[in-house]
Hints:
By secondary structure, the chain is of the alpha/beta class.
Amino acid sequence: MLALITGAVDDRSARGIAAAVSRLVTAGQLPAGTRLPTVRDVARELGVSPTTVSEAWRSLTRAGAIQTRGRSGTFVAVPVLPRQRWRYSQLGDPVAAVSQDLSTGVPDHDLLPDLTDALKRIGDGRLTTSYLDAPVLPGLETVLRERWPFPPERMTVVDGALDAHDRVIGEVVRFGDHVVVENPAFPPLLDLLQTVGATVVGVPMDAYGMRPDRLHGVLADYPAVAVFLQPRAHNPTGVSMTGTRAAELASVLRGFPDLLVVEDDHAGDIATAPPVSLGAFLPSRTVHVASFSKSHGPDLRLAAVGGPARVIAAVADRRLLGPGWSSRLLQGVLLDLLTDPVAVAGINKARSLYASRRASLLTALHDRGVTATAADGINLWMAVDDQQIAMVALAAHGIAVSPGAPFCVTPLDSDHVRVTAGLVASDVEGLADVLASAALLETRGSGPRTRPHPRGWR
């Protein structure tokens, strides 16, 4: 047993030792109930300190992979993750009384399409005659394939973008695996990766998305299994990739043929940037998620997932043991909304209004010396001198925003908050005054002054 464990370790750090043991457990070479060698024995064979092995054991224990039974020793266990406070739960403060909640990251209800006519048009709702029907309505799949940024081998529909991420992660990521994400990244994605014990590595961004040079450096240092991207309307920065940047990233990834790309097109039809995907260059290795929550309604609970059959088939098959399929009644509503000229015109209008709101607030903040980005989508990423002080100051004015820290894999060069600019339909100048006062410590009580542009997330 000792030789099996030490022979599997190629990285003698605590993280590397934990990952090696996890792989043995996943492969069945260390079955549940197996008694592990002592910390001192493993440390002696590997030539590392007992502290290093103890740290690895603690990581595995926290993930539920092993358990200590006092003097009886340490044993392989069925993974059971402990409860913890997720990053997602830190984005808002449900206790605080606010008059303007800009922390939510949700679309404006008044800009969502009216479902009344769509519900009438789909008839009596008898869209399913068997539990064995295809998970996607044929008509909806046809429309989705026409809209897809590359030809997917297979497609299915799940209950929203986060459900898609959860299911894809469950199929391709194991404890100790390295996973690459943008920095900053969407907090729920980081939470999902944490639940499976993945080691998350963040790659800096610029105005065009994830930086190819930094991605190459990270992949050269870490044997990652997947990279997660938001190709447009990045949450929280609003950045959208260009076709050129997608090609540059794909060029880097060609040197790492075992790595899967997972894309989250969460803004969908309210994004102003055109659809872009690494799947245009790496179709056999790209899973693309297209959500309709922000554009057509969160309560539709629908996202399409398309890409290589080996991944999508595994996701669809696993769902048969749970929900089986996403409501075909709701799929019928979505199909109607995607093809009805009135609904399409309404979505186009919403996209223009969101763009106008972002631009107005962004311009007003820049005029006051505040550094912020809001190129696409519904969010604005604002640099602040001190996150906590800014949030307290805004709360005193009845305004809630999201703290930037939960979005960050590693700290950025300055503090940030996320503002849901898509909900700001009036009094932009007044709001900008309050946001600027909260963002810039040196302006309080003396009027706004321009400060140097921080590097921020760039």
